[in-house]
Every structure is written in C-alpha cells, then in structure tokens.
Amino acid sequence: MAAKPNCLIVCSSATQGVSAQSFIHAFTLTHSVFNVQIATPQGQQIDFVKSDDNSRKWLNEFRTKPFSVPGKLENVDASRYGAVLIPSAPGALHDLAQDKPICAIGHGVAGLCSARREDGKSWSFKSFSMTGPSVFESARSADFSSLPIILEDWIKDHGGTFSASEPDGMHVIIDRHLITGQNDTSTLSAVQNLILLCNARQGKAKS
Questions:
Q1: Which of 28, 123, 160, 207 is most exposed by smallest CB count within 10 Å?
Q2: Name one GO biological process term (predicted).
Q3: Are 123 and 158 in contact (CB under 8 A)?
C-alpha cells in the first residue's frame, strides 16, 4: 500500500479564531486521505468560533489526540508536504496574511496575501482567479470597520481576479494549483477538490 501524502493544515491563532465547522469538515476529509499536521503562528492553540453543541463535542474529543497540538508555522519545512489547506478563519485576517496544491477557505484566503515571488515584491497569486468572503459578507461582521484588510478589494488591487456567489452560497474556484472557497459553506466542496487534485498529481507522477 502506498504511503499517504502529507498535508499541512495552517490555522490562525488570533483571538478572532477559526470556524469550528469549516475546520471539522476540513480535518475529517483530509485525515482519511493524508498524514495531517496542524500548524499555527508560534504554535499557539487555536480558538474555535461559530461552534454548536455537536461541534463542541467533536472538538473536545479532538483535543485529547496528540495530533491536535499545533506545530510552529515558523519551523515548518514546506517541502515535506504535498498540499496546504487553510480552513475558514476570521483570525487569518490578523495573523496569516511552491507549486503544490493549496486550498484556502473563507477568511483563510488571507493566508495567501503574504506570499511573494522570488523577487520579494510581486504577489505569488497575481493573475490567479479566486474567491473569498465578498465585501457584502465582510460588511456584516461586527468588527468590519477595524478589519486590517477587505479580501475582495485586496485581491483585486494586487492583480488577482475575484468572484463571489450570493452571500453564504457555496462557491469554489480552481486555478492551476490553487483552490479557494468563498465561505464556511464551501468547505466540503473545496477540500474534496483538493483531494481530487492531489490524487490526479500522484497518478501522473506514477505514470
């Protein structure tokens, strides 16, 4: 049996947190296909938000597992991972701003903003088509006026092509090795596409 590929799940450790439902969907799907490692800035614990009784029960069980302890994002060797996944996380706007599959969902798309090409200046995802929370969705947030960036505007201003569906609608865009989902509702479809993309690449590598 072939060894499972490795997948890095990058989460925010900011107090604004990570969407519980998006994380649960993302982890459950990837854990069955990949060897998963979780990483956060400075290896800090994750604050989960938007949780209900079922998700709190799942998270309480999850926290008893050794793999629930995040590693330090700063110490990660990216070459070890076949894919990177960033679940939806309001906190990613505050602390997460190589040609391998990358999947970012909701506010987790903010984790792509700091990626730079080799010249250190131009954005790595300039000219890519992608999605994320629309201005309208972001404006519904109570802390909208204090958000460090508005993703839709930032992507357009830095050379990306942005599109979104209706608020809270499922919307996923695939462009080359990048998969983005508009919001929490898009998590399942986005992660399924990440798995399909990784499987397709593995198939090509074997042929």
A1: 207
A2: methylglyoxal catabolic process to D-lactate via S-lactoyl-glutathione
A3: yes
**What are φ and ψ of residue 160, in 5° steps?**
-90, 160
For 205, other C-beta atoms within 10 Å of its C-beta total 8
- Which H, E and C letters describe 34-93, residue by residue? CEEEEEEHHHCCCCEECCCHHHHHHHHHHCCCHHHCCEEHHHCCHHHCCEEEECCCCCHH
What total of structural domains would you count in the chain? Answer: 2
129: left (phi over 0), alpha (psi -120 to 50) or beta: beta
Name the nearest CA neighbour of 199 among 75, 109, 101. 101
Whole-model pTM over 0.85? no
Residue range 108-122, pLDDT digits in tens: 998 888 888 777 778
pLDDT at position 89, please? 67
**Cα–Cα dist 13/38, whole Å:** 11
- Output the domain CATH number for residue 155: 3.40.50.880
The answer on 118 and 199 residing in a single domain is yes
Pick the last residue of a domain from 96, 112, 136.
96
Structural contact between residues 71 and 37, judged by C-beta atoms closer than 8 angstroms? yes
Full domain range(s) for residue 178: 102-206
**How far apart are alpha carbons 122 and 12 in whole angstroms?**
24
Domain assignment present for 24: yes
Residue 116 shares a structural domain with residue 86: no
Are 155 and 131 within 8 A, CB to CB? no
> Is 146 a residue whose pLDDT tops 90?
no
The better pLDDT of the pair 174, 17 is held by: 174
